[in-house]
Write a structure and sequence with these properties.
Helix content is 26%, strand content 34%. It has 126 residues and is of the alpha+beta class.
Length: 126
C-alpha cells in the first residue's frame, strides 16, 4: 500500500468535510512532508497521536474555507516520476508547490531550483 497516497487522501477528505483534524501513519517521509506543508502554510500543526504509529494533523482554514484546494499524488508505486533540474514542475504558475525527494532530502520545487537538483516528484499541493 502507498502510505503517501493514503495520507494525502486522508488530508484531502478531511478538508472536503471541513474537519479540524485528521490522523495519518507515522513514517519519516510523512513527517518530512508535513514539515514542508506546515512551513508553506498549508496546515496549522502536527504532533504525535495518542494512537501508536500515528500523527495528528491540524488543518488550516481561513474564513471556514480550507487553505488546501487540492492534493495530487504524482509519483506512484507503479509509475515513478523523476525530473531533472531543468524540468522541475511549476504548480499553477507558482501558486502551489511540488514536493520532491532529492539527494538533498525532501524539498519543494522552489528549493530544488535554487539548489540546482532534480528528483522524484511526490505530490502537488495547491
Amino acid at each position: 500500500m502507498d502510505i503517501i497516497a493514503d495520507s494525502l487522501t486522508k488530508i484531502r477528505n478531511a478538508t472536503m468535510r471541513s474537519l479540524p483534524k485528521t490522523s495519518v501513519k507515522k513514517t519519516k517521509l510523512i513527517e518530512e512532508l508535513l514539515k514542508i506543508m506546515k512551513r508553506e502554510g498549508y496546515i496549522e500543526e502536527f504532533k504525535d497521536s495518542a494512537q501508536p504509529f500515528m500523527i495528528d494533523v491540524t488543518l488550516k482554514y481561513i474564513n471556514e474555507k480550507s487553505v488546501i484546494d487540492s492534493l495530487k499524488r504524482v509519483s506512484k508505486l507503479s509509475r515513478r516520476v523523476y525530473v531533472g533540474k531543468d524540468k522541475l514542475p511549476r504548480v499553477y504558475n507558482n501558486y502551489g508547490i511540488a514536493i520532491l525527494t532529492t539527494s538533498k532530502g525532501v524539498i519543494t520545487d522552489k528549493e530544488a531550483r535554487s539548489l540546482g537538483v532534480g528528483g522524484e516528484v511526490l505530490c502537488y499541493i495547491w
